[in-house]
Amino acid sequence: QVQLVESGGGLVQAGGTLRLSCAASGRTSGGYNAGWFRQAPGKEREFVAAIRWSDGTTSYADSVKGRFTISRDNAENTVYLQMNSLKLDDTAVYYCATGSPRSLVVLTFPPAYKHWGQGTQVTVSS
Predict the structure, then answer these.
(1) CA gap 11, 50 in Å, rounded
(2) At residue 14, does pLDDT exceed 90?
(3) Residues near 70 by Cβ (< 8 Å), separated by ≥ 6?
């Protein structure tokens, strides 16, 4: 099993930055795809960013393109989400997720992932 622990959330002013971390433990030796999702109050869970194990290809939601960057440190089994130029609408609980690199499900969809973290709150204030 893979366990995921997110950290780095908090309160930040609009225009500011945060860097979220997702530490993975357990059976990670075979590699994994990774993604970030978020859920704001009263809204559905929304895809934010993903990175493929096979070739490192990244993908982003249109709402965060140019502002957010997903990356990974394989030696530390950690996935990051660098968030710049934060907006009020970025306020949400952010979840890290991992899935099998053999999965054929597009990474923008939750079914591509098997393991999920507990989430970390990001609040952007004016």
Answers:
(1) 24
(2) yes
(3) 34, 35, 36, 49, 50, 51, 58, 60, 79, 80, 81, 82
Please state the separation of Cα 107 from the chain's center in Å.
11
Residue labelled with tokens 């009020």: 88
Antiparallel, parallel or unpaired: β 120-125 and 10-13 = parallel
Buried b (16+ CB within 10 A) or exposed e, 45-77: eebbbbbbbeeeebbbbeebeeebbbebeeeeb
State the CB neighbour count (10 A cutoff) for residue 114. 14
For residues 36 and 33, give the distance between their C-alpha atoms in angstroms, rounded to a whole number: 11
Instruction: Read off the pLDDT of residues 25-55 as tens digits, 9 standing for 90 and up.
Output: 887 667 899 999 999 999 999 999 999 998 9
CA distance from start to end of the chain: 40
**Each residue of 47-67: pLDDT tens digit?**
999 999 989 999 999 999 999
